[in-house]
Amino acid sequence: MMMRGVHMSDKRLIKGGIIVTMDKDRRIIENGYIIVEDGLITAIGKYDDVKNELSSIDETIDATKEIILPGLICSHTHLYGILLRGAPLKIKPPTDFVQNLLEIWWRVDSALTHDDAYASALAASYEMMLSGITFFADTYSGPNSITNVLDYIEKGVNEVGIRGMLAFETTERENKEQAKKGLEENIRFIKKTTKSDKIRGMYSIHASFTVSDEHIKDVIDAQRLVPAPITIHTSEGLVDLYHNLERYGKRTVERLNDVGLLGEHTILAHTVHINNDEIELIRKTNSKVAHNPLSNMLNAVGVPPVVTMLEKNITIGLGNDGFIFDAFENIRGAFLLHKVHWRDPRVISPLTVLEMSTINGAKLYGLDNEIGSLETGKKADIVILNPKPAVTPIFEKSVIGYIVYGMTINNIDKVMVDGEILVDNGQAIKIDENKIEETLLKHSTKLWERLDIKVE
Ligand SMILES: [Zn+2]
User: Fold this and answer.
1) I need a labelling partner for 230 at 20 to 30 A (CA). Which of 26, 189, 254, 387 fits?
2) Which residue blocks in 112-236 are alpha helix, DSSP H?
3) What's the gap in Å between 266 CA and the centre of ligand 1?
4) What are the tens digits of pLDDT across the range 28-65?
């Protein structure tokens, strides 16, 4: 593809700037350089070591005084959540998590169409890209728009150009047939995208309280034949815990373990209401966790034991749960929530939340050999931040704190995926913002009308 006269296959040099690699040693390279060829990072290090040897560079990006990061990762989202932003629903305000699902989300997802799925994918992935996110894991829910819906979402994300792992969220809340249909859609899409680089499929089960053990086993069987990660909302609200205690005499994670769901390719979203025995099951099975601090606050469900899980070396990624798509707001949410919860500022560090948003997010979905850090051989998914102006010295010991304390979406200079520049000087260069607004307003207005919201 041509981009400002430069071919994707050409040799690009990013030089100057401070590189936060997030590699195994969490190396930080001051005045660094990165060579990008054929969408991959082929060299990285100190610029002074190579500046006299570099040859046949087709394009040089000067990142002096800037911060270079791996593309950020959103470990759990619902792209369609963007369609409800600000919606004045005519309902009595929900008083708890179950009412939230019943009164808001299950009404909304029943009203969703294939075109809504496309439009929301376009807008949400656009917003994520502008804040530096280059990979996300999405689960779509819509009992009346199941078959082939993942193709519509794929189309929206592809127009934006970032990476995504997509799934239909299976549930038996209305009937068992819908869960079967949803599972078929996931299998179809995973098979279709096995050779795809940017968009892939996975399995998603809504939550333990809306599915039987039989359905969970069906998904596990499908995964054996057609491998892909499985994600499930896990004890987000107390309803999960009470349901499993009443019906099975087990806590949520115990039940999931007994049915055979836990494992290194299983991502548990939320895990708010879990005890130490459940944490031990997650650790022993090397299951992964997607933490969604802003959503937990919004839905007032509680604070997950992230600090305890981190102590046990459980791999935790950071998600937005379809609420606020800006990566930096979510990073700060995770950074602050546990401090106030424990009334102890030491419980979580800036590096820990950055790990959740980069390399650990990649580990959740088995992609840590491809993305999540800046290393030779990895995909050139790169974010360049411009502090404009730097207000304190930015060097090896200060840069991570500087990012977590101070960077916002306004500091995004460039976002690259596979070495292709998608955002330059903070502006999307591949897709027209006006087209997104036009498409979105059309679909969100119609959806709101179906939800009996008068738009005037
Ligand atoms: Zn969710």
Assistant:
1) 26
2) 114-130, 149-160, 176-192, 213-225
3) 14
4) 999 999 999 999 999 999 999 999 998 889 999 999 99
